[in-house]
Each structure stands twice: as structure tokens, then as C-alpha cells.
Structures
1.
Amino acid sequence: MKCPKTPLTLANRSGFTLIEIVIAVAIMAIMAGTIAPMAFRKIEQAREEATLKELSFLRDGMLEFYEDTGRFPSEAEGLLALLTDPGVNGWSGPYVDGGGDEPTLAVTTDSWRNLYQYDLSPAVNPSGATQVLVVSAGVNQTLDMGSVGATWTLAAADDDLYVLVAPGPLERAKMHEAHRELDILGAAGRQYFANNAAFPNTSADISGAYLDPGLDGGAFVDPWLTNYEMTISLVGTQPPYWILRSYGPNRSDDGGAGDDMTLTINSTPPARNTTQSRLAVAQLILNQDPNLALSGSWALVDRSALNLVNVFDNDGWGREYQLNVNSRLIFSMGPDGDAATVVDNIPTGVGP
């Protein structure tokens, strides 16, 4: 038995009618008009976030560059100095990861492939806000807050993205380290004077014997990679002073003013200690031989007669000890080198 044929009706046909297609296109257009701006905003938001993250990496890299070299990259060196060594003493980068096949672009351009603006010691409103400024023009790819060589107004950033780089915490740490190193050098200078009756003329004089091996060499360079200045001050008959100086963050000699850090070492304490310790031994030996006839010439005759080695010839200032024959007392002329001014002689009050 044959099945009856089903009549061909509109409902059995495949495909869309014209009105259905028009409706579908209209819906797609509405959806596109809604989704496209949202997608665009998402893309731009992702670019902003990537640029902000990159600016953060650049800031960290510059602080590391500063810590190693004592300065920020010059404007001529630019951000590439964080990636490749521009020939700066202390450079131990790279300080950022260029990554990919275009490391130079990764370091120097934002997510819109526009160059970052790098401004060293920028004019900023409010003033003093930073020592370095790195700026991206942002979504509109136009700088709104200023330009290199002009004033940057932070409040006018609009969609500009930027990072401020200030070395304040690092500077404080470096200054603390410089003071610590000055104290170490000062102690070495005092000991050197105690042993030699003179301050060191060069760093080589105290290298090795007077410094901890872990500090030797590097101890003569401050945290800004500038050699410590060492000078000896001699004024008339006054005992000498040893002046140690770091030029500080600006690495420039300000004559002890500005950001210079200075430590002045007086020769009197170490010389006095040396003088007193030698005197104590010499006087004890002399007292044990009360029958020894004294000539009054300590270094040439009497010291040898007591079988004392020649280190007992001179006091802590390198001056010959004096001898009062009548009282049988050995004495030093003291800091001023004048035997007649007994007030500073050692022992006090003992003189010719």
C-alpha cells in the first residue's frame, strides 16, 4: 500500500525568507554596535594596564641602575641604558627584560608603539615631585601634561600614563653607608697615626694592614662610586688633622658644604695614647735603675743606657722625648711641641 504524498507547503521549504534575513541582519547590526565599542574599550584597557606595568618595571630598573652606578641614565643614553651597557662605571644590567624579537622597542615604546618620553631632572608642577619622569601619551597618543624641556603638570595628565622616579630612600641608604665607611677609614687613620706618628698620605698606606680584608679597596670608593678625599691639615705648631670627605650624591666637591660628608680626625687622641703607653714603660725601667747617671740626652745616650729599643726615642707625635735630670722624669712636649708650655706636656706640669 502506497503512502499518501504530503502536500508541499511553505512550512516544508528550507532557507530563510527575505524578511527573516532582514531581521537577522538588523539584530547583528544592533549587537555589533553594542559589542564593538565594548571590545575596543577592553583592548585599550589592556594596553593601558600593560603600559602601566611596563612603566613600573622601568622605574625599578632605573633605581637598580642608580644603585649600581650612582646616577640615572642621561637623556642621551635614554631608556636603552637599562638594556645595554652605555659604558658607565658600575653597570651590571640588564635591568629590564626586553624579551621577544624586538627588545629595543619593548624598552623604549608603550603598548601603542609610541616612544616613551624620558626626562631627567624635569620641571614638574608640583615642583620637586621627582628626579626622573617617564611618560606615555596613552590612549589618545597625544601628550596632555607637558613635554621634555617644558613644565610637566601632573594634574593635567588626562589619559597620559607616567611614572615618577625619585632616589630618596636609596640616597638615605647610601648616605648611611658613606658615614659607616668614613668611620671605618677614620679608625684606620687613627691606628696608623698611633703606629707611625703621622697620618696616611694615600689610601695605599692603610690598605691591607689597617682595614678588614672584606673592606680593602672598595672602602676607598664611596657609594656614589667616587673616591673618598683624604687630606692632611697642618696649621702652625698645632697637631695635624686628617680630613676624610665624600662628595655625596652630586659627586661634586662642595668644599665640605652642600651634600658633602666630612669626617675630621684629630691626631691628639691616638698620639696621646701612644705617648703615654711608651712613657709608662720607659719611666718604669728608669725607676728600676735609680743609680744610673743621666746625661739629659734621652735619645742619644740615656735610652740606650737603659737597653730600650729605639721605638722609645719619640712620642706619639714623632718628637723626641725629653728628660728632666733632676726629677729623673721622662716627658713629652705634648701636642704643641713646646717643652716650656708644661700645661699640655705629658705628664702635665713636667718640663725642663
2.
Amino acid sequence: MKNVPKINISDMTPDKIKGLKDGYKVFDLATKKYYEKVGDKFQEMIEEGVDLPKSNETDYTSTMNMIDELVAKGDKLNAANLLMNVKTTRKSLLSQKDMVNQKINFMFNGTSEQIDIIQARVSEVTEAAIKKATIEEMRQFFVFDGTEVTLNYDDMLPDKDKKEAYREFLLYLKSIADAENEIDTEVGKIDELINHFDPDMVEKSNDVYVWDEYVYGLFKEKLEDPNIDDKERARITRIIELRESASNLQPMVDYIKEEISAGRRKSLIHAFHTRFADTLKKAQDYANENGFNIYFQMFDNIEETIGITEWRNIFIFIFARYIKFNANHLSKMDNAFIAQVVQNLIMLKKGQLKEPDKSKFAAGIKSIIALLSEP
């Protein structure tokens, strides 16, 4: 199909966005609010703060005992589930540190070494002193070898807001020190927990595709257990079926066929041109409300990965629309299907999706695009 807008999800700067129509304002939605605040002041960027991890020695010891018990019993399926929970907690903690660094890098126009120096300087003064400091006093924190390094967008901030921007930044640096130390402590404890799992299992968990294959192999082994009850057998069978459908994308293919049969092919294309960002946000909101995340910007131009150049991001739009318009009646199992599709997209984009799943998944995407491309 000719002249299809090639919407680029990533690498969208404020200057680029100014010239776009509303339907094409597509970039990292989680970062958008920070760009929008540049012309005002930085306070709203940093008032979110960083939550200190809640350390609980009782829970830690209980988890350690649970790991040892599952490993001793040879219960690999439940051990695998627990390992993922532990590693997810670890990833969440580290993501908080990443968030801190991203905010700092966005706000400060200097190096990481200079940030360390500012933090050391801030540690020597009280919070009350920072709150009372003049703009001249605060700027001294940013002087290195006689040269001042400013905050980003310093020249864009009105004079009346500059003082508060610098004050909030210094207070933010002071507030995160304890949080970062606590995060490092908790990550150390989690690493000790991980060391109690079977080393082969831990090794497999470091590769997304290998882990995916491993876990579903455990599910299939569980079906061979003569002691499994009917309810558990039905649940595991459904999980395996969902994995297959997330590989061939049949539920989404059927959804598009229904839309086209109802005469909505043109409206789908029109919505792609005009409702792209809104549709992605609605899908992201649904995912967040149901305990998982979808970062659509990771899948920018997924079509090119499978050799399609006529379209750009149409599949991501259809995936988001599928979630948006089915949100009211999706079950936990449906959410598992969505999460598996997301995982397949990640693996495809990173070149980690292996055969035969790669071919099946690519064929599913091509089928959906072919249906939309028909006259």
C-alpha cells in the first residue's frame, strides 16, 4: 500500500513534535510530561521521589526456606515461578536506580563524575540550609575548576523559576542518597536468594527464549504426572494453548477478519492515521491496571524486522487496538496471551526468537497486515 505514513515511535524530540498533527505525536509516553515541563520548572519532575524498599527479614528468611524446600523436593515448576518473582523484584529495584539516573541526566548538563561531586557537596549541608539558600549560593554547588555547569534548559527557564529549579534539584540529590544505598542492600540480599536455586535453572533464566522453552517444557512434564487433578490439568493445558496462540497470533487474526467482515477496514486505516498515540496509551493504561507493562516504543518498526517495508507500526497499532476494544472482558488468561505476545515482540526485535516460533510469529503479523492491505 503506497503513501502509508511511517510513524516513528522513538527519537521524537520536542521540536519535531511541534510540527506534527495530534495523531502523530508518538514517542516515549512515559517521558512526555518531562518535556512538557521544560518551559515551566523542574519541580513536578522530581517531586515523585524514590520509594525506599521495605526490608523485611522475616519475609527474606521465609523465601530462603521456601527455595531450599522446593529445590530439595525437585519441584522445578514452582521453583521456576519463585525464581522469576525474585528476579522481577530485583529488576524493579534496579529500575528505580535507572529512573533516578535518567531524571538526573535529563535535568543536569554535566558528567556523572560531576554529579558525584555535587552529591558529596550536598551531603555536607542540611536540607534546611538548601531551602534557605540564594541562587548565588546554590550555583556554587555546580562550579568545577572555576567553571559553572548549569542545569539543562537553564536559559529557557524564567528568572523567577530558576532559583526553585536549582533548589529542587539539590534537594532531590539529597533525598535519593539513602534510597540508593537501601536499594543496593536489598539487591545484595536478593542475589543471595538466587544463589540458593539450582544453578542450571538460574543460567536458563538469563536467556528469554531459553527460559520460555524451559518453563513450557516443565508445564508439559506436569501433564504427565499421574497425580495431577482435572482442574490443574485443564489450567496447564490452557496455558500451553495460549502460548501457541501467542505464537501464531490466531486470536488477533480472527479479530481483524471480524472487523473487515463488518466493513471496518477503511476505519481501521483511518484510526491508524489519527488515533495512534491515544490507542497506545489506552492499551498501556490497561496493562498497568492489570499488573504488567507494555512499552510500545520498544517495538518501533517491528515490520522491518520481518521484511515488510510498506508499513511502519501498523501491527503495533492493531495489537494496541485489540487490547483497547476488548479490555472490558479480558480474563487473566487473556492477559497471559497479551503478555506472551509482548514477550515474543521483544524477542523478535532483539533477534532472540528462534525457529519454529520465529516463522510462526512473523507469519501471524504478515497475515494481519495482508488483511489490512487488501483493496
